[in-house]
Write a structure and sequence with these properties.
Chain B: InterPro entries: AAA+_ATPase, CHLI-like, Mg_chelat-rel, Mg_chelat-rel_C, Mg_chelatse_chII-like_cat_dom, P-loop_NTPase, Ribosomal_Su5_D2-typ_SF, Ribsml_uS5_D2-typ_fold_subgr. Chain B: This is Magnesium chelatase family protein. Chain B: GO terms for molecular function: ATP binding. The structure holds 2 protein chains of 2 kinds. Chain A contains 2 helices and 5 strands. By secondary structure, chain A is of the alpha+beta class. In chain A, a hairpin with a 2-residue loop joins strand 1 and strand 2 (36-44). By secondary structure, chain B is α/β, with parallel strands linked by helices. Chain B is built from 21 helices and 18 strands. Chain B starts with a strand and ends in a 19-residue tail after the last helix. Classes of the chains: A alpha+beta, B alpha/beta. The A-B interface holds A 63, 65-66, 68, 73, 98, 100, 114-117 and B 27-30, 62.
Chain lengths: 118, 526
């Protein structure tokens, strides 16, 4: 496994723990279809949440949140539709959240959760 | 997450409006939006502020940042909101106390490294802030000189965003490299008052009389004569005859100059009447003011309370010259553009200089003019009747004959200026209960009602009027000029002699010595 994938996986683990602590029910992780992958699918009360996790080791190339572009968001919207279709659920609300994980070379990692980005 | 606001100033013409700069930092992906009708240079403020904040050692929030400039319907232009935007942003992200920000106005453009660059119109902005009751203002250090001219507001000159933040936090203000003054867009020589003295002018009895009367009463002046006869020489010496500006006038003039970018950083108030001499190729917009979107003052506003000297006036485009008609009457100019209407003051003394014909020799006693009648006609039509009708004093300037002036020492500027000052004092005393200060400013109806000529003078002018030598406007203008001559002579009211000379000055006739004035007709029988 390459380093960047290991960092990503570690970040996703931290994100899932963070969400669980915030009262989310994790439904699925790393769900794949031919369109791509959803990092985390969770339930937050009545809402179904598709969660993108982005992990970075430093701020040299900007904050992890800045890497979520318009294109990425469109992709997440498509994936959300596909997931709902395949699971035939009708949640009252759907939402896309982003969790940014910063794993610095020294010190503890930080997790930031941004709700409802699209 | 958080909301904060800071204050800056928007300028529409010379009028400042307080602008509230609000910043809201909300949940969401990092994105910065700037709303409130910004123009291109203001939209770029987002990127300048981001870099300046980071390079000043602060954090730019990775959140959805909305910056709103209100009133939202007022179009905003320019880069001077940067400092206020950066401060409200940092207050919203919690690293600056926002109570401090509500009591201070901030103007200044940020560099990417956090330095603060100078802006235009700082004087007018500071005036607006002081009038709105703010006690403190932060300006770029290079603008601090002009901003300090405004009474009743404490001015801080800042070199960088770091210094502004230290000031707001009450910590020790870090030292920074001094700013480099930017080159002026309009050269300072444009506003330079010529340092010349009337003493250097030999002869020119008529020309001297003309500029003395022009300076005393604020009368527009038309000088024509062959090349090298001394038209420019006389015009340049006119500004030396005018007294210093009053405090109120000088604040008006300085505000216009600040907006036009003519004030230097070690600015003091403009105290001498400005002398502006646009070249005859000047465009319409450069003369009256203009510019795309937001209007800027033109040469006539820079010449406010001073002299606008147009040399070789017939070479100027007739349409351009004719645009001066309205400001000549009203004393201000309204510039209408898509985004705003700006009103600039433009009460100037117009001096036109012209050759009599393209070859320059027509009407001179010595030369023979080689221009054909058609050429002459065309040349003379370049200065329109309406403009000429507004010129109170029209003089032919002829070269002084060599040796003709030996013996008598020419009067110096100081001597003549003293007489002008006395004449102006008499005017301000006479008009003390009115909004006017000079004879040339008194409107016709008031002039006829409150300051009529004596019967004989009135009869003299009416004769000229009925024979077509005077227009109705010209009639009033001769009356005003006669009052000025009376003020210069130190007499209570214009006499027949003075009225006659006023008419001669206006019509361009040769002046008769006051002692040997022959009443034109009718009076001789009496």
């Amino acid at each position: 496994m390459r380093t960047k994938d290991a960092v990503g996986q570690y970040g996703e683990q931290l994100a899932a723990e963070h969400l669980a602590k915030a009262g989310f029910t994790i439904l699925e992780r790393n769900w794949r279809c031919e369109l791509g992958e959803i990092d985390i699918v969770a339930r937050d009360g009545d809402a179904l949440v598709v969660c993108e996790v982005k992990t970075r080791r430093g701020l040299g190339y900007g904050s992890p949140l800045e890497s979520i572009t318009y294109r990425k968001l469109s992709k997440l919207r498509q994936l959300l539709g596909r997931w709902l279709q395949q699971h035939s659920v009708r949640p009252a609300e759907v939402r896309i959240d982003v969790v940014a994980v910063l794993v610095p070379r020294t010190g503890a990692p930080t997790v930031e959760h941004v709700r409802g980005v699209a | 997450m958080a909301l904060a606001h800071a204050w800056s100033v928007a300028l529409v013409g010379l009028e400042g409006h307080l602008v509230e700069v609000e910043t809201d930092i909300a949940q969401g992906l990092p994105k910065t939006t700037l709303i409130g009708l910004p123009d291109a240079s203001l939209s770029e403020s987002r990127d300048r502020v981001r870099s300046a904040v980071v390079n000043s050692g602060e954090r730019f929030p990775d959140r959805k940042v909305t910056i709103g400039l209100s009133p939202a319907t007022l179009p905003k232009t320019g880069s001077h909101y940067d400092v206020a935007i950066a401060s409200s942003l940092l207050a919203a992200s919690g690293v600056l106390d926002f109570h401090e920000l509500s009591r201070i106005v901030m103007i200044g453009e940020l560099g990417l490294d956090g330095r603060i660059h100078e802006v235009r119109g700082a004087l007018a902005m500071t005036l607006a802030a002081a009038r709105s009751g703010f006690a403190r203002i932060i300006v770029p250090e290079l603008n601090a000189g002009e901003a300090r001219l405004v009474p009743g507001i404490q001015v801080y000159g800042a070199r960088s965003l770091r210094q502004v933040l230290a000031l707001l936090r009450g910590t020790e203000i870090p030292d920074e490299e001094p700013p480099r003054a930017e080159p002026k867009l309009m050269s300072e020589s444009l506003t330079r008052v010529p340092e010349v003295d009337l003493e250097e002018v030999l002869g020119q009895r008529e020309g001297r009389r003309a500029i003395e009367a022009a300076a005393a009463g604020g009368h527009h002046l038309y000088l024509h004569g062959p090349p090298g006869s001394g038209k420019t020489m006389l015009a340049e010496r006119l500004s030396g005859l005018m007294p210093d500006l009053s405090t109120e006038e000088s604040l008006e003039v300085s505000a216009v100059h600040s907006l036009a970018g003519l004030l230097t950083s070690d600015a003091e108030l403009v105290v001498r009447p400005p002398f502006i001499a646009p070249h005859h190729t000047a465009s319409l917009a450069s003369l009256v003011g203009g510019g795309s979107g937001m209007p800027r003052p033109g040469a006539i506003s820079c010449a406010h309370r001073g002299i606008l000297f147009v040399d070789e006036a017939p070479e100027m485009h007739p349409l351009t010259l004719d645009t001066l008609r309205q400001p000549l009457e009203s004393g201000y100019i309204e510039v209408h553009r898509a985004q705003a209407v700006a009103k600039f003051p433009a009460r100037f003394l117009l001096v036109l200089a012209a050759n009599p014909c393209p070859c320059g020799l027509s009407g001179t006693p010595t030369g023979v003019c080689t221009c054909t009648p058609q050429v002459l006609n065309r040349y003379r039509q370049r200065i329109s009747g309406p403009i000429k009708d507004r010129m109170d004093i029209q003089r032919q300037i002829l070269p002084t004959a060599r040796g003709a002036t030996t013996g008598e020492r020419p009067e110096s500027t100081a001597e003549v200026a003293a007489r002008v000052q006395v004449a102006r004092d008499r005017q301000s005393f006479r008009y003390r209960e009115t909004p006017w200060r000079l004879n040339s400013e008194v409107p016709g109806p008031i002039l006829r009602r409150d300051y009529p000529l004596d019967e004989a003078s009135q009869r003299l002018l009416e004769e000229h009027y009925s024979s077509g030598r005077l227009t109705a406007r010209g009639f009033d203008r001769v009356v005003r000029l006669a009052w000025t001559l009376a003020d210069l002579a130190g007499v209570e009211r214009p006499t027949v002699d003075l009225t006659h000379q006023a008419f001669q000055l206006r019509s361009g006739a040769l002046l008769t010595e006051l002692s040997d004035v022959r009443p034109i007709k009718g009076d001789s029988a009496a």
